[in-house]
Structures are given as structure tokens and as C-alpha cells.
Write a structure and sequence with these properties.
globular, alpha/beta, Rossmann fold, 29 strands
Length: 1260
């Protein structure tokens, strides 16, 4: 009994009995029949837990009785017989089972698809119904790019997104992303099993085990069908047209599908069972993304006998040959506009122009448009209507601009029209949940990459100033956004007139798989009149001459008059060779401008925008004309009150800045200055006062012409030359058109006046003026480039590859648009006789021995000969003149003699050309041809000269080509005479002109090349095939075949990703990332890579990340960190020498050394940048300024430390704050809390006073 009580106690203490007194499941591990005898007999065997015997009073213990009842409830059919004999259980009543919980409730499973009606975008007609997967709602933002995924909720990442989130699937990439997601969802075990299957493919049985025992005879017959004969090639073939990726791994996949050994160069037909290839499709899970992207099942097609036949090349996507751009005819009035749009989403107080109506009609149908209209034509109406449509549909619209200032201005304008408007820039976030969001392009790009929930509800995106895509630094952002936009987003693009609008729209339509409607304006609403103002500061001489009238006609007579004035002035003042680009002395310059302003006032041409291409020059001109008083007392009162309301937002100390005082003085007299060196709040004040009409003349740089419609009556060019960062050059037509377009106020002016100042009578050449004023604007050109940030973001996403991005860039559009023609040519060549039956073409025992080796050796000689000749004959040597005999050599013909008959002038950066009369045979002069060839195509020049009448040969050849019988006869006689001279000159031995002896060249490499060439050409005589009597005939056939094969290789190269312009650079950059451990060998982004993704500072992602991992920042004070990071954002050129503390100098040197290390890694990976390029680009010119600003120094004192203008300093501070935020977020990723706190402190110390005062456009 004691043993039983002890065991019971242990059981309860160990909690093996649950609260109801039942044994836990873990103890019921013996057969019931083995336990029951002990219960009945009261014995405790070894290993038993309880003693079930009676106690002295003859009753069971209560707890043991509970155990017995538990066994009865669990297994009554086994226990009843034995237990009924127990005295205490004589009254046992079996429990009635409760079967209600077992009743089946039939509920239909939810569908994981929905039916969608397809529409043909080309015919605008309905197609068939198709199933669309809707199971993505079960996925979240971290694993799916589906629009039906679970929302993230209103958390901190709702607006900007997060690097842990997937972007929404871009339109045009749905299939690619879906296929790659299937692979990404495979478990590591499944992937390894698939790879093992591939490795053991040759040992697998012909049929899968499940198919071997099948009773389906039809299936057996299909699976065991007889082999068919298929011709295969070792060329790198194409799959799915231009969408191929044929790198080394992918080509291995293609060869595996074709059963082609990677080492076999043979192109002979083989016997194979194609059905086995179908089975091997199951192997491809190991190849993952490659398999699904290439869709290898399309390698097979049904043959004539019903068997599957391997496709030699697949057809390209039919849509690639479609025209996606539709040019809208705006010359036809939209008379039925009100009937088609009876209830406009936004009503205007004026009648819309035809182009605006056409745009509205397409927007109502949710069709994307590209509006390329003249400046001030009213493109903003289209943007406003897209916003109104979004507000009506309770969806979202994003308006993007290339610059922050333009975003602020548009925010104010749209806020006045639509109340529900927000603003997102680098440092400002106003009402981010609004249905209309105004933002910069960089913000939208970040939101797309980071899967912002805003994108889910996005209905329209408006791209203003699309021609900004030509910007070399930031143009790539536009391309990335256009590629990344999801399918539900409509696109509205606004641009100045561009010549290739249709091509650009075609590119967008192709990548987004939708039609783009191109709408252009035929003419300006206010015509322009272009003037030359010949100005020397004297009313007797100064003259205004129209150079191009309102009809666009060049007035050459007026230009001649201006030139006459120039000559007369130079003669009277004894001026010679005065350059048009030379700066005038300040006194003369002021005299000219004051005289011109007097003329402008007299002719009532104000307000005037004077475009000047230098910040300092703007300030100088402001000083020159500030002596004039151009405003009334009422206007002065308006200017002063508005200016002081704006300035009152600053600290008292900041109000005394010299720039503020100076600009106040200018504005009071009606003179404004606008450039990047002006404080942002002052620039906004100038813009608002100019719009009010109280600023009479505004000196502005080129950026003022960008964006907001601020027209004037007159536009003046201080000069038509500018420095573009590399050199001084004339304005391009697009630049001139953009700036001159600000002339002419719609509804106020009949014409807009554009005046080019010709100071001191310096008249530009008429051809330059014609090209600039009437020339074609610059085309939209791709500025796509790869950055480490882009590569890491896409590798992080996983479903969108870099090659997907590259293929869809505008830079690849020209090649991709020709894919159908390339595919057609490829199909034609692969079916040619020489390719289908390569061994049947030459039936010659002699030639078959080494004709292929001879061909290879001859081509090697030809390549070296071209390199040598390009150096030797490119010289303007006196040895190459008319009459010199030369030879040309083809592989399938004997050496041909020729004579030089002309040496055309050599064009810059082009190969030297020669006119040669070439004789196929000297015995038959009629076959002589006059041809122009490049110097590298010459085989040899010899030391033989004939007296050929070169001029007569060229003139008679030209006349004979017109079927002039007399000329034909004379030309024939001249050819016979020349052929006789050449034959006589070559009868005896002639020596070849050598680079060393005759051309006096001593370059060591060239001498080595020449010696090697002589030896290689001599070795050609040792080949046996040249002894064949029909060698040239056989070589002609073989050469034709090789040309076909080379063309096939070229076409396949063009149809593959190997032709992508940026593919080599991509591989090099990935090599750098792997070497620096930002991605692993499987291209998976590591922790270091995720940190670099968060930094997002353009080309400095790796530098900042490396500095963070090297603890360059962690041990420093916040002010020091901000000072070091300023080297990434400052772009000015301070004249003063940088003086900083030793600690700060140490940090600068450390950052430069890390940048140099990255440069070395890049060089080792094959990139061509100099190792010091990144280090040299770091600009720490504001390091001491930033350090003291973060230390609390006043801005007025800051400006005394440097010659950098105030506006440049503030702009650097604003960009620096964005970098500090990015570094803080990156530090959170790898848990560096100290750096997080310090970056937060650095950001707070930056954001104060005048550097971060709010925009006038965003305040009430």
C-alpha cells in the first residue's frame, strides 16, 4: 500500500494526471489487456505505476477509481468484461455517445480565381474569357507582388514602403514574375531534389515509374512513340524571340533540352526521341528561374506525322511587331465632345482646345496619353483632368516633377483647384493620405521599389516635363518608374515638342502592353517673333531687326543689314577679330544694358525674362540695371509688404543676410534674380512677385524655363553660348525653344518677342541662327545606366531580374523593335540549303581535308592586316596618291590589281577612304569597277606607279552610269588603256610597301604585328586545299556557308540578352558585389546588401555601407558624421582652401581610402573606371560649414566662412538631411543603436532656422 501511495503521489506531483484525474496520453502506451489483470488482482508488477488492490476497509481509493473510470471511457469494448466483476462497479451504465459533433457541415471552398474578359488593345474589341489567379490574397507584402495581397495597414511604411516588402508586379511582367515566384516558393529540399534529378538524368528510365504500370494504352502509345530525326546546331539559339537570356547556365539548359552536348561542335543530324525531352521538362525545377523564363516547352512543335519535333528557333512575340503608339489628329475638331463627355470630372471656365478635348476623351476611357505640346499651350489641363478622374473614382493620382521646386509650385496650384492634395518630397510630407499626391520622381521610384500601399490604389500617374529624361544624371529615374508601374495605372506624359514622340510612346506601349495615344499641337497659341538687337549703347547705331518672323521664315536680308552695321562699327572703332564669346568690360556692358532697358521701356515690352548662363553673371546684371526704377508706388508697397511677410518667417539674425538686403533693394525697383545660389525662400518670393507682374525684368538661369507656366511678354538672351560643364558651345535647338517659349502671354499678347542681344555689334553667323531657332529639338534619348542600388533592389525582390529591366529600357528599344525582322531573317537562313545539308555542298576529297582550317587561317590574317592598315594607311602619307598600284584580296578569288584614282578629304574621326579602279582580270578590262574603299580594306600597296588620268576616270565613270553612250565608249577605252599600263607595270617583280622601310614607322607593336602577318600569310601556301583545280569554286561555296553561319550567329546574338548594351557592366558590378559580400554566390542579397539598399545615395551606396561596417561613423560625434556625409551631396567649387579639425581630416582620409578600395575592386572586376574616380568625386568643400552649423553657429556667420552662395549651402543641407535619415534606417537593419541615436541627433541639429524654413507654396 505504501508503494501504491508513493506512486500516486509522484504521479500527481509530476502532473501526469490532468485536472480531471485522467492519465495523460503519454502513459497509455501498453495494451489494455496487459493492464487489466493487475487492476483486477490488485498486484503491482515491475514497471506498473499503480497498485489497484483494495485497502483495509475494502474500498477503492477515490483517485484509483477515477483512473478505472477513465479506462472505461476510453476503451469500453475491451474493459467491460473484466471490470463488471468488481463489486464497486456492479451498477455500471454505459455512456451514450454524442454523435452531433461528428456531423459533416458541407461548405463550398472559396474560388481561387475569377473570370476576366480580355480585350484586344489594337482593335478595341472583346476577346475570350480567362481565369485570373486570385489566391494572392493569402500572401502578404513580404512574399507577393499581387494587387490582391493582404494590405499592410496604416503603419509607418504605408506611404513610403519598406525594403522588406515586394513591389507590386509591373505591367508587362506578369508572366515573368509569376513564373519566378513559383520557383521562389519551392523549399530548399524540393530544389535540391530537382537538381539531383538533373544530375542523374542519364540514369533515369525512359518513363516515370507511375507511367510504367499504367493501364492507359493511349498514353503508353504516346510515351513510347518512335524517335524522329531532328537537325540540331551548336549555335546559341533563341527562345521566345528577344525575351531570351542566354548566358552560360541558360545555354546549358537549352542544350539539355535539345539533347545537345555542350562540347559537341557538330551540326550533323542525330536520331533522338523527342518524347524523352518532354519528360525531361520535369527536371527543370533545379534550374528554377531560367527554366520558367525560357518556357522550354515551346522548343517543341507538332510535326507532320503527329510527333513532337524540336523547334530550331521559336517565333518572337507577335505583339513585338505591333505599333503601340497611335498619333491623334488634332486638326479635326471634336464637335461631339459634349455628347461623348456630358458630365466632365472637372469643369473649366473656358473652351478647351482641340488637343485638350482629345486628351480628355482618351482619359475618360482610361487610355494612356503622351501630350507633346508647345510651351504655354495648356498641357496642365490634361494633368488636372487626370486628377479629377481619380478624385471622382475615389482612387489615387500621383503628379511627378523632376525638381523639388516645381513640386512645391504645383502643390499650391492643385491645392487651390482640388482640396484633397498632398505633397511628398525629401524633407516635406503634407497629407500623405490624400488622393492626389505631388512628389518628385525619386520619391515615386522609391515607393515602387519598396511596395508602398499607396501604389495599390493608384489610378493615374502624371509625368510632367518628360523631356527631362534627357538629363544625364537623373533621366534614368523616369525609365525605372515607367518600367515599374503596375498594370492598373494609367499614364499621362506631358512634354515640350519632341521629334520622336511616337517612338517614345511605342517603347512605353511595348513594355506596358497597352496603346499610347500621342497628342501634339501643330503650332503655338501665341506665335513668336525672333529679333537681333544690335546694341552698342548709342541710339544712332542700335537697331532691332527681325531674324525669324511669326510664320517661321528666316529673314536673311535683315541679317545682312546687321552684318553691315557690324562691319561699319568695327571700321569706325578700329576693331579687328573680336570674338563673339569675349566678355565686354563692365563699363561697356552696363552701357549696353541700360540702353537696351530704355528701348524695352519705350516699346512697352515688359515684363522681360533675361536668360543668363552664369549665377555670378545674373548678380552682375542685377547690379547694372538696379539704378533704374521700373515700379510705381503702389507696386513698391505690394512688393515690400509681401517680401517682409515672407522674410518674417526667419530668425532676426537671418533677416540681416546680405543676400536678403540686396534682393529687397532689387525687387523694390522691379528687378529680380533667380538662380540656384539664391535662398529657396527668396526664389519663391521672386517667382510669386513675377507672377503678380510687379517684377519687370528677371535675370534667370536656364532652370527657370523648367515647369511652371510663368510667361513674359519678352524673352532676352544675354548670350547664345553656354558652358555645359565641359566646354563652351552654342545653344542647342531644344534648349533655345524651351527658354524662348516663355515669351508670349496667352490672352494678353498677340505675339511673343524673343531678342538676342548682339552687344558691340557682334552678329552670330546666319547658319548658326537658323539651326538654333528653326532646328529640330533634341530627341528623347535614353540615359539608362546601372547603379549598385538598382541591382541590389532587384536582386532583393527576386521576381524582377536586371535583364528584365535592361530589356525594357529605352536604350534597347531600337534593337528590340527590330526583333521580328531579325527573327524572320534567322528563320530564312536556317532553312537555307548550305545550313540544312552542310556536308553535301563540297564533294571534293582534296578540299575537305583542310579547307575549314584554311578559312580560319585566312580570316586571322585578314584581321591582322586590317589592324596594320588602319594604322599605316590612315596617315596622310604622300605615298598614297593617284596612280599608285594596290592589291585587294578575297578568299574566294585570286588577287586583284587596282590603281588609286582619288583620295577624298578625310572626315574627322573617320577612316581614310580611297577611290580605286579595280580589275577582276587584267585580260578583261570590261570587268573593271570604280569603287571607294576604306584604307583597311587594301591588301598591299606596291612600289609601282602608272600615269593614270584620275580625273578623267572619275568623271567618265559618273557619266557612263547615266547611260551616256559617248561616255560609255570613252570609259571603255580608258579602262583598256589603264589595264594595259597596270599589266606592263606588274610584268616584272614589284615590292610591297612596308610600314618600316617605306612609311617610316617605328612603333614596336606595329613592327611585331607586321612580322607576324608576313609569317602567317606565308603559311597559307602550305595548305593542301589550294592545290585543288576548283579551289576557288569550292571556296565560294564554303565561304557562302560560313557567311550564313556568321549571320545566323549575329542574328541570334541580337535576339539574345548577350546583345544588351549594359550586360557586361552588369556582370562586372555583380562581381564587385559578390567580392564585397553584398550578395552571395547565388545572387542572394546579404545583410550588407540590405543595408546598402536602405542607404540609396545614388553612386555612393557601397561607400556609405562600407563606412558603416568599418565603424567610420559610430565612434564620432553627430556633427562630425554630418560633416563627413556632406562630401556625398555637395556639388559646388569653393575657392577657399578647406580647413578642418584633425579628427575630421582623419575621417575624410578614411572615407577616401574606402572609396579607393572600392575603385580597386571595380577594376579587378573589369570595370573601366579609374580606381580613384569615386574618391575624387567626393567633395568635402562644405565639411567645416556643416560641422559648425550642426554645432549651433548662426547662418549669417556660416556665410562668412565660405564663398559658396547661400542657396547652394541650403540645398546641400537639405540633401544631407535625407542622407542622414537613410543612414539611420540602415543602421536599424543591423542593430547599431548607437549609430541610430547619433544619426537622429545629426538630423535634428541640421534641421533648424533658415536652412529648413517651410516653402511659401505650402503655407497659407
Amino acid at each position: 500500500m505504501e508503494q501504491a501511495e508513493t506512486m500516486d503521489k509522484m504521479l500527481w506531483e509530476s502532473k501526469e494526471l490532468n485536472t480531471f484525474g485522467y492519465l495523460s496520453d503519454a502513459l497509455w502506451n501498453e495494451e489494455a489487456g496487459q493492464r487489466m489483470p493487475y487492476l483486477r488482482e490488485g498486484k503491482v508488477p515491475n514497471g506498473a505505476l499503480f497498485d489497484y488492490s483494495h485497502d483495509e476497509k475494502g474500498s477503492l481509493d477515490g483517485r484509483r477509481l477515477a483512473l478505472a473510470r477513465a479506462e472505461l471511457e476510453i476503451q469500453p469494448e475491451v474493459l467491460l468484461k473484466d471490470l463488471l466483476t468488481l463489486p464497486d462497479l456492479q451498477q455500471f451504465t454505459p455512456l451514450q455517445p454524442d454523435l452531433e459533433p461528428l456531423e459533416t457541415e458541407w461548405k463550398l471552398a472559396p474560388l481561387d480565381f475569377e473570370l476576366v474578359l480580355d480585350r484586344d488593345p489594337f482593335r478595341n474589341s472583346s476577346g475570350g474569357w480567362r481565369e485570373v489567379d486570385t489566391s494572392g490574397f493569402e500572401m502578404d507584402a513580404h512574399s507577393s507582388g499581387s494587387l490582391s495581397r493582404q494590405p499592410t495597414g496604416l503603419n509607418a511604411n504605408f506611404v513610403r514602403g519598406s525594403i522588406t516588402q515586394m513591389p507590386f508586379t509591373p505591367s508587362g511582367m506578369e508572366d515573368t514574375v509569376e513564373d519566378k515566384l513559383k520557383f521562389l516558393n519551392l523549399t530548399p529540399k524540393e530544389i535540391e531534389e530537382g537538381r539531383e534529378w538533373v544530375r542523374q538524368a542519364d540514369k533515369l528510365p525512359a518513363l516515370p515509374p507511375d507511367f510504367v504500370n499504367t493501364q492507359n494504352e493511349d498514353l503508353k502509345a504516346v510515351m513510347t512513340s518512335k524517335p524522329v530525326q531532328v537537325t540540331e546546331f551548336s549555335f546559341e539559339g533563341t527562345v521566345n524571340g528577344i525575351a531570351d537570356i542566354l548566358d552560360e547556365r541558360e545555354m546549358g539548359l537549352v542544350k539539355k533540352l535539345r539533347g545537345l552536348s555542350a562540347s559537341s561542335p557538330s551540326a550533323k543530324p542525330v536520331r533522338r526521341n523527342i518524347q524523352a525531352d518532354n519528360l525531361r521538362l520535369l527536371e527543370m525545377s533545379g534550374y528554377g528561374d531560367i527554366y520558367r523564363e525560357l518556357k522550354p516547352e515551346q522548343f517543341f512543335e507538332s510535326g507532320a506525322d503527329g510527333n513532337n519535333v524540336l523547334k530550331i528557333s521559336s517565333q518572337s512575340d507577335a505583339t513585338s511587331s505591333k505599333e503601340w503608339a497611335v498619333k491623334v489628329d488634332v486638326t479635326v475638331p471634336a464637335h461631339d465632345f459634349k455628347d461623348r463627355v456630358p458630365n466632365m470630372a472637372h469643369k473649366y471656365p473656358f473652351e478647351l482646345d482641340t488637343f485638350q478635348k482629345r486628351a480628355v476623351l482618351h482619359l475618360e476611357n482610361h487610355e494612356s496619353v503622351f501630350v507633346a505640346a508647345h510651351t504655354s499651350a495648356g498641357k496642365t489641363v490634361v494633368a488636372e483632368y487626370a486628377i479629377a478622374l481619380s478624385l471622382r473614382a475615389k482612387s489615387r493620382c500621383v503628379y511627378t516633377s523632376p525638381i523639388k521646386a516645381l513640386s512645391n509650385q504645383k502643390y499650391r496650384d492643385f491645392k487651390r483647384t482640388f482640396e484633397d492634395v498632398g505633397l511628398l518630397t525629401g524633407d516635406v510630407q503634407i497629407e500623405p493620405s490624400a488622393h492626389c499626391l505631388v512628389m518628385t520622381t525619386e520619391i515615386l521610384r522609391s515607393m515602387l521599389y519598396r511596395g508602398s500601399e499607396i501604389v495599390r490604389d493608384l489610378d493615374w500617374v502624371v509625368f510632367d516635363e518628360v523631356h527631362y529624361i534627357n538629363d544625364s544624371e537623373r533621366g534614368v529615374v523616369w525609365e525605372e518608374i515607367l518600367i515599374m508601374l503596375p498594370s492598373q495605372v494609367g499614364i499621362v506624359m506631358l512634354s515640350a515638342t519632341v521629334p520622336n514622340a511616337v517612338d517614345f510612346a511605342n517603347w512605353i506601349g511595348r513594355i506596358k502592353q497597352r496603346k499610347i495615344f500621342v497628342i501634339s499641337t501643330p503650332k503655338r497659341p501665341v506665335p513668336l517673333e525672333h529679333h537681333l538687337y544690335v546694341c552698342v549703347g548709342s541710339k544712332m547705331i542700335d537697331k532691332d531687326l527681325i531674324i525669324v518672323n511669326t510664320k517661321g521664315e528666316l529673314q536673311a536680308v535683315n541679317h545682312a543689314t546687321a552684318v553691315a552695321i557690324q562691319k561699319d562699327f568695327e571700321k569706325k572703332n578700329n576693331i579687328r577679330n573680336m570674338s563673339n564669346n569675349a566678355r565686354l568690360p563692365p563699363k561697356q556692358d552696363k552701357t549696353v544694358w541700360l540702353a537696351f532697358m530704355d528701348y524695352v521701356q519705350h516699346k512697352e515690352l515688359m515684363p522681360v525674362i533675361a536668360f543668363v548662363f552664369s549665377r555670378n553673371r545674373c548678380d552682375e546684371l542685377g547690379d547694372m540695371v538696379s539704378s533704374l526704377d521700373l515700379t510705381t508706388q503702389k507696386e513698391k508697397h505690394l512688393i515690400n509688404s509681401f517680401f517682409w511677410r515672407a522674410v518674417s518667417r526667419l530668425n532676426e539674425s537671418d533677416r540681416d543676410l546680405p543676400q536678403i538686403k540686396r534682393l529687397e533693394y532689387y525687387l523694390e525697383r522691379g528687378v529680380g534674380i533667380h538662380h540656384s545660389g539664391i535662398l529657396p525662400i527668396l526664389k519663391e518670393a521672386v517667382e510669386m512677385l513675377f507672377q503678380e507682374g510687379v517684377v519687370k525684368i528677371l535675370f534667370a538661369t536656364e532652370t527657370f524655363a523648367m515647369g511652371v507656366n510663368m510667361p513674359a511678354r519678352t524673352v532676352v538672351f544675354d548670350s547664345i553660348n553656354k558652358h555645359d560643364g565641359l566646354e563652351f558651345r552654342d545653344l542647342r535647338p531644344g534648349e533655345y525653344i524651351q527658354m524662348s517659349g516663355r515669351a508670349g502671354r496667352r490672352g494678353l499678347d498677340k505675339t511673343g518677342n524673343v531678342i538676342i542681344l548682339c552687344k558691340m555689334a557682334r552678329i552670330p553667323d546666319i547658319s548658326k541662327l537658323q539651326q538654333m531657332i528653326l532646328g529640330v529639338p533634341m530627341k528623347l534619348e535614353s540615359q539608362f545606366r546601372l547603379t549598385y542600388g538598382m541591382i541590389l533592389q532587384l536582386l532583393r525582390i527576386g521576381t524582377i531580374s536586371i535583364t528584365d529591366m535592361m530589356k525594357r529600357s529605352f536604350s534597347e528599344y531600337a534593337n528590340i523593335s527590330k526583333a521580328p525582322q531579325h527573327q524572320e531573317a534567322l528563320d530564312k537562313l536556317t532553312k537555307s540549303k548550305s545550313i540544312q545539308n552542310p556536308d553535301e555542298e563540297i564533294d571534293c576529297g582534296i578540299c575537305q581535308q583542310d579547307i575549314e582550317a584554311y578559312f580560319a587561317a585566312f580570316q586571322a590574317c585578314k584581321k591582322i592586316r586590317a589592324e596594320v592598315n588602319s594604322q599605316v594607311f590612315s596617315l596622310d602619307s604622300k605615298l598614297l596618291f593617284p596612280g599608285r598600284l594596290v592589291t585587294r584580296r578575297c578568299i574566294d578569288a585570286p588577287v586583284r590589281w587596282g590603281v588609286i584614282v582619288g583620295c577624298p578629304p578625310r572626315q574627322p574621326n573617320e577612316e581614310r577612304m580611297l577611290d580605286i579602279m579595280e580589275f577582276v582580270s587584267l585580260d578583261d578590262p570590261d570587268n573593271a569597277v570604280l569603287t571607294r574603299v576604306g584604307a583597311r580594306e587594301i591588301h598591299n600597296a606596291v612600289n609601282a606607279i602608272i600615269k593614270a588620268d584620275a580625273n578623267a576616270i572619275r568623271s567618265l565613270a559618273e557619266a557612263a552610269s547615266t547611260n551616256n553612250k559617248s561616255a560609255i565608249k570613252q570609259y571603255k577605252e580608258l579602262k583598256e588603256k589603264t589595264a594595259a599600263q597596270v599589266a606592263a607595270a606588274t610584268k616584272s617583280r614589284v615590292d610591297v610597301l612596308t610600314p618600316m622601310k617605306d612609311f617610316k614607322m617605328t612603333d614596336v607593336d606595329l613592327v611585331d604585328q607586321w612580322d607576324s602577318l608576313v609569317a602567317m600569310e606565308a603559311s597559307l601556301k602550305s595548305f593542301g586545299c589550294i592545290r585543288c583545280p576548283q579551289f576557288y569554286d569550292h571556296m565560294k561555296v564554303f565561304n557562302e556557308k560560313m557567311k550564313h553561319m556568321e549571320e545566323i550567329a549575329r542574328l541570334r546574338h541580337l535576339l539574345s540578352n548577350e546583345s544588351l548594351q549594359f550586360l557586361p557592366e552588369y556582370r562586372e558590378r555583380v562581381g564587385v558585389l559578390k567580392e564585397m559580400r553584398y550578395v552571395d554566390q547565388n545572387n542572394t542579397v546579404t545583410l550588407r546588401g540590405r543595408v546598402a539598399c536602405e542607404v540609396s545615395t545614388s553612386e555612393y551606396d557601397l561607400l556609405v555601407a562600407e563606412c558603416m561596417f568599418a565603424n567610420v561613423f559610430t565612434e564620432r560625434e553627430p556633427a562630425e558624421i554630418a560633416a563627413l556625409l556632406s562630401g556625398l551631396v555637395f556639388q559646388g567649387k569653393p575657392k577657399d582652401e578647406l580647413i578642418v579639425s584633425p579628427l575630421l581630416q582623419e575621417g575624410i582620409e578614411l572615407m577616401r581610402s574606402i572609396a579607393t578600395m572600392i575603385g580597386i575592386k571595380q577594376r579587378e572586376a573589369g570595370m573601366k573606371q579609374a580606381t580613384s574616380q569615386m574618391a575624387d568625386q567626393l567633395n568635402f568643400g562644405l565639411a567645416d560649414v556643416v560641422y559648425n552649423w550642426c554645432g549651433g553657429m548662426k547662418f549669417v556667420d556660416i556665410t562668412k566662412m565660405t564663398d559658396v552662395q547661400e542657396g547652394i549651402i541650403v540645398r546641400a543641407m537639405t540633401r544631407l538631411d535625407e542622407v542622414c535619415k537613410n543612414v539611420k534606417n540602415a543602421a536599424k537593419i543591423f542593430g547599431n543603436t548607437r549609430l541610430v541615436d547619433k544619426m537622429e541627433a545629426a538630423s535634428k541639429s541640421l534641421k533648424r532656422d533658415i536652412a529648413f524654413v517651410g516653402s511659401l507654396y505650402t503655407c497659407d
